[in-house]
Structure prediction request, 327 residues.
Amino acid sequence: MSVLVTGSAGHLGEAIVRRIRALGQTAVGVDRKPSPFTDQVGSICERLFVENCVRQADCVVHAATLHKPHVVTHSWRDFIDTNVTGTLNLLEAAVSGGVTSFVFISSTSTFGSAIKRDSPAAAVWVTEELTPRPTNIYGVTKLMAENLCELVHRKRRLALVVLRTSRFFPEDDDVPEMRREYETTNLQANELLYRRVDLEDAASAVLLALQKAPEIGFGRYIISATTPFTPADLIPLAEDAPAVVRARFPECEALFKARGWKLLPRIDRVYVNDRARAELGWNPRCDFEYVLDCLRGNRDFRSPLAREVGSKGYHDRSFMEGPYPVE
Prediction:
């Protein structure tokens, strides 16, 4: 089996190429940036380039994208060209080339304003049934691309799975206040309670989606670490998240305190991966309990794959206000 992987110079793209090759299968990396995991350098916006790349592929994983950190540095047109037109180029080439499975990497950012961040009443229980309401051009174009995927499946019968991934990047948070208040590993450990997935787990979900796509036909799945919370926790999480966490993990506060870490005062959303676990057979390893186990043993809770891929950054230059500007 030959798998074309777009965005192979990025975090998830590289991780997928690594995983596929480790299994002894063929992965062809495509990116506009050269990298050790990129075999074809070019833009997915170029239709002929895409057609040539897809021609020899049995399956496609489409991870290439302009991300949220590009919102300030790139125009809306850039986002549409890359995230929408680029996706359409790949979909059309996949149909013409007889591709058997197509996996599109989307984002939980599509939910956007559906998560009422300014409301103190309750956290939002985020499942695939929640209606997306993007807040910026990144979320808008990812949702547009998702809808293109669904349309191509319905009209052309391409077997296609959309994965709405939560945070997996190792870089510092995009909110200055969070960078000032929390050490990066402290914040990301907290995020595994409700809005983060380890890179190894994300890559494993992609491989399962490739296998399951012909059987599924079309499906959307939230890819995030398994949360310990239930819908009954939504109001308490908005009022006093540490109390909820301590009730489930009595040892967590001492383990955090030993490292100078702290829990988040409130949590505004909970990403729920039930459908992905049930229908894809996905079993993510890294969750908050795993983090605590690593802290007990003084081990890094990031997977070996996440550490190997490392930090990528999103821009070719630095910024005075932080690692990247966000609107």
Q: What stands out?
A: DSSP finds twelve helices and nine strands in the chain.
